[in-house]
Write the structure tokens for this entry.
Amino acid sequence: MYHRREEDGETFVRIVSIGEILWDVFGETELLGGAPFNFAAHARRLGHEVLFLSAVGDDPRGRRALAAAGELGLSTKFVRAVADQPTGFVSVRLDPAGQPEFTIHRPAAYDCLEVGEDDLRQLAEFQPGFVYFGTLHQMDPRVRSATQRVLAAVPGARRFYDINLRANSYTPALVRELLRQANVVKLNASEVASVEGFLGWPQAGFEAFCRGASKQFGWDAVCVTRGEQGCAILLDGVYAEVEGYPVQVADTVGSGDAFAAAFLHGLGQGWPAAGIGDFANRLGALVASRSGAIPEWTLEECAGMKRR
């Protein structure tokens, strides 16, 4: 599951990320995004080996997306180009605090994900430690079927479910199904309230939720992001609430995806809950302080962050 590089002794994880690749459209500006793609790009920058599974249209946006993915060091081997659907895009409006409001335009090419027998063979040979997926992409039955085939092909991989609820892009039944399939889960504070509602549970606080849900679904780890207040993590029975790093927010698009990549990174290094939370808070805050979902950042910048 975990691997070490002989030259630097670093532990890295092989990851399969399944989900949408799309363009975030801010007025006249278009920036490449999609939560699973953002996660994949940040995980790759953290030194992990990542295979990204999705689809783009055979159109200018699709060709630009493939080129940009390559520049980020991501393989496009499992990103299919389809002729009859447009590359996905989302209209993004930022409120005064930099919080995004998304308008998701569908149909989109990313819903045309397909995996053949040769793809499954190659994914099995890759031997991923984690398979990452979200909710929006799984709304399409074709995608859900393809994802189940991938999971069946790599039974030893842990399943990382990053909930990422978007308006009109989930159902309670789908979320419950994905929660049951997961080993590791990430969600934000408002999503905790939503999931408690789906499950018919009272709102009893983050620790009670993490412990109760982990027991019911058999999760190895769960993390609740809380913006500038930090995060709450339950890992191997140890619960920690970790203080955040307030920053001047440019926009929060992609900050949660960077947090997810840092969370997985910490799991791969075998860090304790509090250490994982601190590192993930740093990277999430750093990305929120810059425009776009995948801005430039370095580990040195993360290490140098200070609380006010």
Summary: DSSP finds ten helices and 14 strands in the chain. The two ends are 38 Å apart (CA to CA).
